[in-house]
Design goal:
heterodimer, A: about 270 residues, alpha/beta, eight-stranded parallel beta barrel, 10 helices, about 35% helix, B: about 210 residues, Rossmann fold, seven-stranded mixed β-sheet, four-stranded mixed β-sheet, 6 helices
Chain lengths: ~270, ~210
């Protein structure tokens, strides 16, 4: 049976992990290479590196970071942040990323998704969709969500479910769905929009934004709750609150199918 | 002692991570797109991502296809990864119906849309591609898969390991004499994947 994936996410700025990764055995909390290696050894199912640098020089640094991280890990690597052009995607894939997540660029030019999927294969193209819940109107039966860009600072006028259907039709291989209302709150994923997107599209959905406990991860993945195919989280792993193994054990005990933690056998 | 191995660069995606994993398990690796070099190799690994199409037709009909068949028929150890395994078979439904190298009997078929699976008391609809970690039988190890088409082997003896997605049991790894293939990506499957590559290398020692 296919298992749900647990994906630690490292936010990288100017070549350093933002706020750092603080768990036992790491010498440098800000070194993305060391952190990525540690998560790979712990048995993370996949890793995500997001570039939150605003400058052009920072972007160059990020490509170098990807080039250094990729040979050190033996699990899939998804990278994203600040990707504007087709050439950025090419450079990141050449640097060793398995999947590239595009966000604003897809909103401003949806045909880009199709072009990238044709060129590199759908499996390499993730569309990151950031959403915000709209204020409820009197006769709404269901909540409405708007797609937002630039870290949530700019609305797009796109309705989230329709946009997710469209990116799947255009050939995206996966959707990384982040609730900007929940991001950073540590009070759990937005389960309503996660579930609706997961049910609407025929491609995997990664839940993101708001994890503060293992129970939140369980909710994001459970049928009838978030129904996501994968759960992305940052701070609960980085602060050493839980290891990947503890997370897997918690989920297994509660009926969520996950890959068991790796044994200690040497390769 | 390092085993010298030839990694075939047939333009089917990035080989860097496969090369890195092979080095990790102790092989010395030559990467080449030269059919003559492939034809004279003693151990060949043929990886691939992407899809069957015009490109794979050209490969099958061209000098590289000839070189791969030569290595296999000579009895030298051969490992096809992902599309590289699928291409060992007769053909695929992908791309309007394409041919493979035709070394093993069987064809690649697309996973049906709208498959479901029971989970507890609920039903879950399955996505395509089959992407993520799945368990193979009989070893119960997990490997990382990404594919929309699967190998339907005509000869069940060729299937070394199988896995299940929805209603479909498919070949996760095949073996026929000197020929190995894996549908999963050993280079992305952490320790389990490295063990698989190591076993291939050890098994190919003569």
């Amino acid at each position: 049976m296919l298992k749900r994936r647990i994906i630690p996410c490292l936010d990288v700025k100017n070549g350093r992990v933002v706020k750092g990764v603080h768990f036992k055995g790491l010498r440098d909390a800000g070194d993305p290479i060391e952190a990525a290696r540690a998560y790979d050894r712990q048995g993370a199912d996949e890793l995500c590196l997001l570039d939150i640098t605003a400058t052009t020089e920072g972007r160059e640094t990020f490509v170098e970071i990807v080039r250094s991280v990729a040979p050190q890990i033996f699990c899939p690597l998804t990278v994203g942040g600040g990707i504007r052009r087709e050439d950025d995607v090419r450079r990141l894939l050449n640097a060793g990323a398995d999947k590239v997540a595009i966000n604003s660029a897809a909103v401003s030019s949806p045909p880009l998704i199709e072009r990238l999927a044709k060129r590199y294969g759908s499996q390499a193209i993730v569309v990151a969709v950031d959403v915000r819940r709209m204020p409820a109107l009197p006769r709404d039966e269901e909540p409405l969500y708007e797609v937002v860009i630039h870290g949530g600072s700019r609305g797009t006028g796109l309705e989230a479910l329709r946009w997710c259907e469209q990116v799947a039709e255009l050939g995206a291989g996966e959707i990384l769905l982040t609730s900007m209302d929940k991001d950073g709150t540590r009070d759990g994923y937005d389960l309503w929009i996660t579930r609706e997107v997961a049910r609407r599209v025929n491609i995997p959905v990664i839940a993101s934004g708001g994890v503060g406990s293992l129970e939140h991860i369980r909710q994001g993945l459970a049928l009838g709750e978030g129904e996501a195919d994968a759960a992305l989280a940052a701070s609960i792993f980085h602060f050493g609150l839980y290891t990947i193994a503890q997370t897997k054990q918690y989920l297994t005990e509660r009926g969520i199918p996950v890959r068991p933690p790796e044994g200690r056998r040497a390769a | 002692m390092a085993r010298e191995l030839t990694l075939v660069d047939a333009g089917l995606g990035n080989l860097a991570s496969v090369e890195r994993a092979l080095i990790q398990v102790g092989s010395s690796t030559i990467v080449t797109n030269d059919p003559d070099l492939v034809a004279t190799s003693r151990i060949v690994v043929f990886p691939g991502q992407g899809a069957f199409g015009d490109h794979t037709d050209q490969l099958v009909d061209g000098a590289m296809g000839e070189a791969l068949r030569m290595v296999i028929q000579r009895g030298d150890p051969f490992l096809g990864i992902c599309i590289g395994m699928q291409m060992l078979f007769e053909g695929s439904e992908e791309g309007g119906g394409r041919k493979g190298l035709g070394i093993l009997p069987g064809r690649c078929r697309r996973f049906p849309d709208n498959m479901t699976v029971e989970e507890g008391d609920k039903t879950r609809r399955l996505k395509i591609p089959h992407m993520g970690w799945n368990e193979v039988r009989p070893s119960n190890e997990h490997y990382y898969f990404v594919h929309s088409y699967y190998v339907d082997a005509a000869n069940s003896d060729d299937v070394m390991w199988s896995a299940t997605y929805g209603d479909i049991d498919f070949a996760a790894a095949v073996r026929h004499e000197n020929i190995f293939g894996c549908q999963f990506h050993p280079e992305k499957s952490q320790q389990a994947g490295l063990r698989f590559l190591r076993a291939f290398l050890l098994g190919s020692r003569q």
